[in-house]
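Here is an idea for our session: we take a single protein and study its fold together. To get us started, please write out a protein record for me. Start from the sequence, derive the C-alpha cells from it, and show both lines together. Go ahead whenever you are ready, and we will take it from there:
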Amino acid sequence: MASAMMESLFQRTLDDLVKGLRLQMVGESRYLAKALEEVRKEMKSTDPIIKVTALQKLTYLQMACGADMSWASFCAVEVMTMTRFSHKKVGYLAASQSFHEGTDVLVLTTNLLKKDLGSKNEYETSLAIECLSRILNADLAAALTPEVFTLMASSRSYIRKKATLVLLRVFVKYPDAIRVAFKRLVEKMDDADPQVVCAAVSVLCELTLKEPRAYLPLAPEFYRLLDKSSNNWLSIKLVKIFGALTPLEPRLGRKIAGPLCDLMRKVHAKSLLFECIRTVTLGLRDHTGAVKLCVEKLRENMDLGDPNLKYLGLKALAALMDSHPWALAESKEVIIKCLNDGDISIQRRALVLIMGMVSESNVVETVQVLLRYAQSADASFCNELLSSILQTCGRARYEIVSDFGWYVTVLSDIACIPHSEHGGEVGRQLMDVAIRVESVRTDVVRACCGLLADPALLGRPALQGALCAAAWIVGEHITRAPHGPYEVLEALLQPRTRLLHFSVHAVYLQTVLKVFVSYAISYQHRYFAKKEVLEQEEVVTQRGSLHAAVELIKENITPLMNSVDMEVQERACNVLGQLQPFEDPNDIHRVQDGFEMLTALSEVFSLDLGPVSVHAQGRVPLPENLLIENNLDALGPVCGSDDVLLNTGEAKTSTSYREWEAEFNFQPPSKENLSGVDPSSAALLQQHRHRYENFYLPSDAPVVDYPPAQLTLSAATTASTSHGPTDSSVFNENSLVWTKPRQAKARRPAVVALDDEDDLPGISTPVSKKGLKDELVFEAIRDALSADRNKGHSAADGLETPQGTSSSRKSGHGHRSTKNRDATNPRVDEIQIHAGDGVGQEADSQTPNVVHREHRRSRHHRPSKLEIHVINDGLSSENESEGTFKLSEKAHKKKHKHRSSHPRSRRPGKSPVSNSQNSGSIPDFLL
C-alpha cells in the first residue's frame, strides 16, 4: 500500500508530459521513447489512479505523436469498467480513439456498453453512445439494438438525440435493425424537442443520399417540416433530401418549387441559399421561374468577391449548362472574370463553362480571349487553356471552325506560346488540316515555314512534335511555300537542328531531300531547256544557285553520317548519294544523269497522300484460295519429315509442330520456302542458333514506328494527347491579333471525312456498383415503409421476428402520442392513388384492375398513419404511368394505449401495399 502511494505521488501527470514535450528542442524521439517505457511500467500497477493517468498519457501520445497503443486495449477496457465517472471517461476516450472493428477485446465491451446504456446517469449513457458510434461492428449492433431502441423513447431529450444519431451507424452495420427501429426514427420527426427532430432528419438525409428511391413515401413528412421550419440546419437537410428525391418524381419538384423560391428570396444564410439552388439545378430544371431566380442569385453572390461563393456559383451554372444555355450567356462577363482569379479551382470551373458556350458564331472571339489569358497565366493553367482550345475546335472534324485560315494561325500561335506543351497535338492537327482541307494548304505551308525558321523553337522538347509535322508538310507541299527552296533548306539545316530528337531529325533529312529534288527540277527547267552550258562564275558565286544548295547540304549533313542513330545515318547517306552527280558542275553528262534520277524521284514525291482510316485493313477482302490455319499442329506432317540434328549428332523426328518449336525455340521456314531449303543446312543452322542463342537478334524485337506514332497519317483521327516539359522563348503579343479580314457568311471549306472514323472504340466509364450493405439497407427501408405502420416489430419480441412473416407485435415503446401534435398540421392518414377519374364506371368493372385491395377496417384494426391504396380504372392517359394522387386526412384524437401485451394486438393482418409496387412511387401530396 505504501509503495502504491509513493508511485502515485511521484508519477508524472499529463501536464508534466506535455510541458516536457514542448521543451524538447532536440532529442524529441528519445524523450518519447522514455515516456512510452514509463507508461508501460505504470500500466502494470494495481492502483487505479496510476493506471488511469498512464492511459491518459498514452492516449495523448497516440493523438499527438502517432504512438501505437494497440497493446493497451485491455487496459482501456479495465478503465472503462471503473465506477468513477472521471476514470470511466478516460477509458471511453481511449477506446473511441484506438479501437476498431478488428480489435480483439471488442467482444468484452458488449455487456459493459449494455450496462452503461441503461444507466440512470445520462452522462454515462452519453459516453457509451458516443463510444458505440466509433467502435460499432455488426456483432455489437446486433446485440445493442434493443438498448438503442429503448433510449429513443427516453424522457431526456439529450439521450434521445444521441440515440437517434447513432442509428445511422447501426443501420449501416446491421441492416436488420431497420425493421425494428425505423418506424421510431420516423416518429422522431414529430418530437417536441427541435434538436431531436434535427437529429432524425440528419440521419434520414444521410440514408436518402445513398438510395433515395426507398424514402419517397416520406415526402409528405419532409414537406411538412420544411414548411414550418425556422432552423437553418434543419432546412438545409430537408432541402438536400428533396434534391435527391425530385429527380425521381417530377411532380414533387413542381410542388416544392414555391417554398424553395420563397426561401431563396428571404433567407440570409448563404449555405441554405446555395442548397436551394443546388436542388433547383437537380430536379426543378423545368420550372423556369425557379431557374431564373437561381441565376439572378448566383450573379449577385459571385460579384461579392468571396472565392467560396464564386466556386459554388460556377458549379451551379455548370449544372445548368446543358439544359439552360441562356443562363451561361447572361453570366458570361462574371464567368470570364473568374479566369483572373488566384484560385486554380475557380479558373478551371470558369474554363469549363466558357468552353461549353463556344459555338460557330463566337469561336473566334472566345479563342482570342483565351489566348490572351494563356500568355499571362502560369504554366499549368496556360496548358489547360490551350488544351481546351485544341479539343473544342478539333472535335467532330472541326465542326465549329468555318475559317481554317484563321485556325491555322491559331495553331501556330499556340506553338509559339512560351509555356505551351502541346506540340504533339498542334502537329497532329496541322497535318490533319493539310491533308483533309485542300483549299487551305497554302496557309498551312506558310505557317509551317514560319515554325521551321524560328530557331527559338528548336530548343523546346515539347514542340518537337509540331516541328516534325511542319517539316513533313513543307516537304510534301514545297511548291506552295511562300519562300524559295533555298531559304527552306537554310531553315532545315540551321545548326540548332542538332537539338532535335533522332526521329524528328530523320524527318528533317527526308524533307531536305524532297526540297532539293523540287529545287533541282525547277532549276533544270530554267537553265537546261535549250541545252545551255552553265558558266562557272554563275554556278559557284550566285547565292541560291544549284551548286550553292549542294554545298549547303553537304556541309551540314556530312557529319550526320556518323550519327549514333541508324535512321539518321541512313537518310544522311541517301541525301548525300543524290548529291554526287552535282558535285562537279562542269561534268554535263553526269549532271544530266543526276537530273534524270531526280525526275524519277519527283514523280514519286508528287503523289498526294490522303487520310487513311484505322479500319482500312479490315476492309481488304481475303483471297478465295487463302487458307488460314488457327491450329498450328496441322503443320506437323509438313515438318515431321525432316530429320533435325541434335547436339549429340543423332537424328530425331519431331512428332508435332508444337514440340518442335518448344524444343528449338526458333521460327521454322514457311511452306513456300520449305521445298527450297536443304535439310542438312537447316539443321546446322538450328543447332548453331540453339548453341549461340545469346548472339542472335531477338525475333520479337519491337519495330521502330516511323514517323512517331502521334504524327503518322493513321493517327490523324485519334484523340489529342499532351507531351513533355516546356521551355521559354520569345512570344510576340501581336501574334494573338487576327489581322485577316473577316468574311461575312464565308462558306466552310470541304473537309475530307472518313466514313468510320467516329466508330473508334472508346473507353467506357465503369459502372459503379453499390455495396452489399447499401442494398440490404435499401431492402430493409422499403419493407419498413411499405408494411402496415401498426404491425411493426417491438422490442418485446427480442428482435426475433422473422423477416418474411406477415404478423408482428406492436411495440410498447413504438407508439406515438398525439398530445404533442400540432392541430394546424394534421397527419396524413390515408393516401389513395388513382390512375384516372373513372367517370361512369362501376365498381365491378374496376375489380380486375385493382393492384391492391383496400385495407379493411374493423374494430380490431386502426387505420395506419400512412395507408396507401392503389386503384387502376383502366383508362389510358398521359399520366397513366404516374397516376393521380388524392389525399384524405383524419386527425387521431384518441389517446394511444400500450397494447403490446393484449392478445388482440397480435392478430395477423395484410400489408396495404406490396413491396414491389410501392418502392418507387410517391403521392402528389397536399393538393
The two ends are 78 Å apart (CA to CA). The chain is about 50% helix and 5% strand. The mean pLDDT is 74.
